[in-house]
Amino acid sequence: MTGRQILHVDMDAFYASVEQRDDPSLRGKPVIVGGPSLRGVVTAASYEARPFGVRSAMSMAEAMRRCPQAIVVAPTFAKYAGASRDVFAIFRRYTPLVEGLSLDEAFLDVTASRSLFGDGESIARRIKDEIRSEVKLTASAGVAPAKFIAKIASDLQKPNGLVVVREEDARSFLAPLPIERMWGMGQKSAPHAHASGFHTLGDLANATDAQLERAFGPHGPHMGALARGEDEREVEPEREAQSIGAEETFERDLVSVKDLERALLGQSVRVAQRLFAEGQAARAISVKLKYADFVVKTRAMQLTEPVSDTDAIFRAARELLGRFELGKKGVRLTGVSMSKLGPLGEVVTLFPDVRIARGNKLEAAQAALREKFGEDKVTRAALLDRPSRGMGLGEARDKLRDPRRREE
Fold it and tell me: What is the mean pLDDT of residues 130-148?
């Protein structure tokens, strides 16, 4: 690791905190970002909601059972993208080596920045202070000689935390932590680890490669190396978004093509807003349906040129919908995801579709209206008084800047 200084900066309850920042009436109250559908999923929860056990990815029904007094706010991704741009601009004041993992977290390599700004701890404090004063949000940071350690450190004293791990202390810092802190150790794999006699990262660090491979397969020895603090991975600033998508789960299953098209239109609107806010366009689209029996099907296609406007996305989504088995089989979830992203306005065809150009102008006009009058004041006429909206705005998943995220 040879003296590296890696920061992991993670915004605190980012979506919920942005909502509380922009609406003073929400401050100090339990806030859940997501849709009102009881079959939806929590996108984010404020720190006031977390003592009740509310967590992201929890079903909305369970969240409201645990915290019935919570205020549910629909996600507004264009607003979150704007706050994210402000935060990442602060990161880049201190180093060009910024690897964004999502809208609200990033790795920074500040090894070469110390002669200008001080050591990693000093830089982390400055970044936190500037985020608080300029963006009016709080962040937690971990400072360490490796990415794995910095990621864990940033999570230990949330919210508004700062944990510094020095190179000589890395192994002793990791050793007592529970096995669940290992990357990739989820609800299904953790019980297996415990049954195999691995309860802490120290247990992993002290095991032989043969023992780890027997317990965890070919990735076992790598887990042991991470648990010993051995992580030479570089911060990769060129990482970009691979997909931007939105999903929603309905309180009642959808059957008619009309209701399914309305759902896809609403998701196309949300995806277009996020693409436009990030200055991105996409050359591929996929549509996902989860049927009432929980079977998931996906259809995808390449587009003739990059798109970022609602109309173009919805046209493609509706075409893909025609490739699914529909009819009496109810649908409990729909999703739209755009991939193969590139800069908005990039010309890749000799004869561009004039509808796309018009759509981009319309998207820009709508963005200006939302900025002036508010997110909830501008919508498509086809989405007014939607029957399926009564079934819930549902789940929206942010896949921005995270190449590891995949469709379910």
Answer: 97
